[in-house]
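Input record (one chain):
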Amino acid sequence: MGRTLLLMLYSVMRKEVLQAFRDKRMATLLLIAPLMQLVVLGYAVDLEVDHIPTVVCDQDRTPASRALLEATFAEGTFQRVATVTRPAEAVAQVTDGKAASAWIIPRGYEQALARGTGAAVQVLIDGTDTNRAQVASAAAQQMALFRSVEISTQSLASSSALAQRQASTAQISPVARVLYNPNLRSATYMVPGLAATVVLIVTTIVTAMGIAREKEMGTMEQLLVTPLRPWILLVGKCLPFAAVGLLDVAGVIAIGAWLFDVPLRGSLLVVFVGAAFYVLSTLGMGVFISTVSSSQQQAILGGFLFLLPAILLSGFMTPIDNMPQPIQWLTYANPVRYFIEVMRSVLLKGAGFAELGFQLVALASFGVLILALSAFRFKKQLD
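The corresponding structure, as predicted from the sequence alone:
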């Protein structure tokens, strides 16, 4: 009896394995694609925060200020990306997203240290990424303490009585100012990324499944014998999910503002223009996945194999600046990255069309390109 049950179980398992691997596309999805994702994502995703893009405004320009900056960037948490002469320029760099922090050393910094009255250094931090902002704030405090101790030690070693008296009062005081999310609330950082993720899942997976289901059940052939043109069929299948995607964006913004006090400092028009372009990309990807899938099972698996790298390489969970340079270049081909940047910039910074021109053009370009390619493949399969 037991031997018979084992043989029956073996027969069912063998049938499933042969059926799964008989289709080359399914074999690729099951074996090759996960291994490729493991290599790429394991190389790219780094939860440690370092090399924070930093702009410097050294108004003192003395050996003491240069020593502070050298120590700051030698540690590795901060990475200098620009040097400016005026504090307003440093603020603009952070506002435009070109830097995530700014170190502003005022005039008289070295003199204040020499007098032993303490020297204040202003550190501006972009709070749209909560985790990175917390690391930057803590690193600034630690660096200031380290330099204060180092200066005190050097003063105590001096033979000058004045220098020894100043050693006890020599102190660098970083005045950290977190922009856009001063309380460093995680919800403020997460909600824009969640909006992009929800739209991606709903529009891509559901679209791919819907078209694959028509092919699997044979109803696609029934539709083709009707007077419907292929483009009408495709648009009719995509428009409802496009509307659902836009409603999801509105729902996430409304719930984020109501339950989590996520601000809306910019225009909703900018948000929904970006969302419309973004939905073109996600719908196009869903259609494309359906054209290379012969069943709903393949469509679901293909959809999730696309979703994982798209989300992880978008800057939603880990800063793109932390990724290796080749992977950073790869993220420029990811529409999710641009929509998250649009959402965070509009909601938290109050950015408009002028500031987000590059992201909106990129989203529109990807949307048109992906949807056109998918429509071409869809029509070719029907002919």
